[in-house]
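Bench log, entry 3. Co-assembly request; chain sequences pasted below exactly as received.
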Amino acid sequence: MTFVGTPDFACNPLIQQAMAILPILIHPDPRLQRQAQPVAQVDEGIRRLVADMAETMYAAPGVGLAATQVDVLRQVVVIDVSEDKSKLQAFINPQILEAEGECEGEEGCLSVPGVYDNVLRAERVRVRALGLDGEAFEVEAEGMLAVCLQHEIDHLQGKLFVDYLSRLKRERIRTKLAKQHPRLTA
Ligand SMILES: [Zn+2]
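Structure output for the full assembly:
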């Protein structure tokens, strides 16, 4: 894995203010199917959103979170696939420039609690995004980071990992979650 120009999140004083844990939408909430819009300017509001999303992701706990999952239609993703949760990365307006290879692995999602299944993804991706400073950077990712990037960027396009599963599995999952979270899906 190569990281180019990724901002050092933990050292950024801008995001060490009070943070908030945001409610996460649960599938089959139709709001998860909406498309996020590009961020025009990385300003204080976006940095605040990133900080709150990071707090929400760590508290869940999860390794990635897209703004769509917290009902914000902006192209913002946070990811930390490190074991000690010390490498938070923010991807604003992320775009997959190249994808190659194939790998199948088990995925889960904070918006689809308790469900894990295998999804076929590209093995390596090159992604361009803006960092918290508003500057563009590129990442060449493989392994868990590559999978996580593809999963989160899907969210920004209104797509969930369960959309890759068979129709029968999708219906079972939908029914099960709708029963468990009736208030959230009414
Ligand atoms: Zn997810």
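The radius of gyration is 16 Å. The pocket of zinc ion is lined by residues 109-111, 151, 155 (CB under 6 Å).
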